[in-house]
Amino acid sequence: MSKLYIVPTPIGNLEDITLRAIRVLKEADLILAEDTRTSSKLLQHLGVETPMQSHHMHNEHKTVEGVVKRIASGETVALISDAGTPAISDPGFLLTRACVAQGLEVECLPGATAFVPALVNSGLPNDRFVFEGFLPVKKGRQTRLSALAEEPRTMVFYESPHKILKTLKDIAEHFGADRPVSLSRELTKLHEETFRGTAEEVLTHYEKHPPKGEIVLVVGGKPKK
To answer: How far apart are CA 200 and CA 190, in angstroms?
Structure first.
């Protein structure tokens, strides 16, 4: 039966791929990959020989229609990103929406994603939380931060290593220097690290020790008075 499969891939440790994901990738007619060069290494490691097609943020508007037609004609397509679960701060939403609109079956497999282990590792309340992904770089950034300063739930952000100091400064400024923060980087990899403290303490630490690798920032919500 034709279907779009959303298939999570490891965020660092290649052992974090499910047996089901490997089977789906092998049985699919086509694999959509964010970066075919990156994904080819993983697929070769897994022994997957399914044809690949590039599907990323710069071309997804153009490729969605063709992919939907292929699924509608009876093909099974698997969508992967460079790492983690597609559509979580990665391409995938547009294609999923288009398939749903056409009445085509969509199935997302469970698997690796960065924010869940970072949230659990943080030690901050996780019965209620908000996932914010990447903050706006310029336009709307200050407005978003001002609004989030009143958010009572734990907040989860993605950030790159070369922007993290700016983000930590912004959080200390808008949320308060004493707001609890947990920074996780290189999750599932050899040098995985989680550093916890106040916004000021975490900023001071990484000013002295510039971080490397992809980062998940978990910030405590505004405390109740």
So the answer is: 27
Tokens coding 5: 């499969």
Q: Each residue of 134-185: pLDDT tens digit?
A: 999 988 999 999 999 999 999 999 999 999 999 999 999 999 999 999 999 9
- Which DSSP helix (H) or strand (E) runs through 115? helix 115-122
Give pTM, 2 decimals: 0.92
Angle at 106 between CA 102 and CA 111, to 5 degrees: 155
Mention every residue, 6+ apart, whose C-beta is less than 8 A from residue 83.
Answer: 9, 10, 11, 12, 112, 114, 214
What the block records as the tokens of 27 is 């049985």
Those residues with Cβ within 8 angstroms of residue 57's Cβ, 6 or more apart along the chain or in another chain:
91
Residues 6+ apart with CB under 8 A from 50: 25, 26, 27, 28, 29, 30, 31, 43, 78
